[in-house]
What does this fold into?
Amino acid sequence: MQGYRYDPHTHTSETSKCGHLPAAEVVERYVKNGFSGLVVTDHLHPEYLSRIDTEHDWQKAMDHYLTGYKASKKRGDELGFDVILGAELRFPENDNDYLVYGIDEDWLRSHPYMCCTSAREFYEKFHNDVLIIHAHPYRDGNLTVFEDAVHGSEIINGNPRHDNHNDLALELCRRHPDFYRLAGSDTHQDGDEARAGVILPERVHDSYQYKAMIEARRFRLWSPEFQSFVDADEAMRTGK
Ligand SMILES: [Zn+2]
Ligand SMILES: [Zn+2]
It folds into this structure.
């Protein structure tokens, strides 16, 4: 498929403790790899807040949280590359991670401590407003997947330092044919970048446009390394 490649799952070292590449460098690497854009999905969860939100001031916490995205956006704008705001939420109940799209800075600032509720509570409250995609649901043997709290799931997570059990995620999506099936690199450090993503028929410039494109199912998966999963998605989509 002709189109524009985007990575919906990347991190920055400015915001994510586990990220080892500065935002600007992540952008440069994706430009070099022929991508048109990426979504910055830095971690937002109680453990992160306990580290940076020492004054218990949500607006200050968001100032910190948005540092990586803003540095990324600045470099992206210079290079004509689309940098989109997303988030990777985790709730106190367990270590599941949820990618969220269709947000902007205002949305983050006006929903204080939304990551301190639960996956189901979050879904109940926001499922009409934002797109919620389970990141690597079965990573490292996880068994507690809340299938009723997401709109879809990654079936390809490219991160090489975890056993992501992408095969189980694909099975999950076979049980839920209505689920959006996504792919992302989960970029944290050198060598993670540009291993998986989506191909869109048009460029998207913000989180709302990206969400709309996914909801219209106007996307294909891309990952040479996980080609059998790309093919499985294609087969499910076309019914062949
Ligand atoms: Zn991380
Ligand atoms: Zn991640």
Summary: Residues 138 and 165 are 6 Å apart (CA to CA).
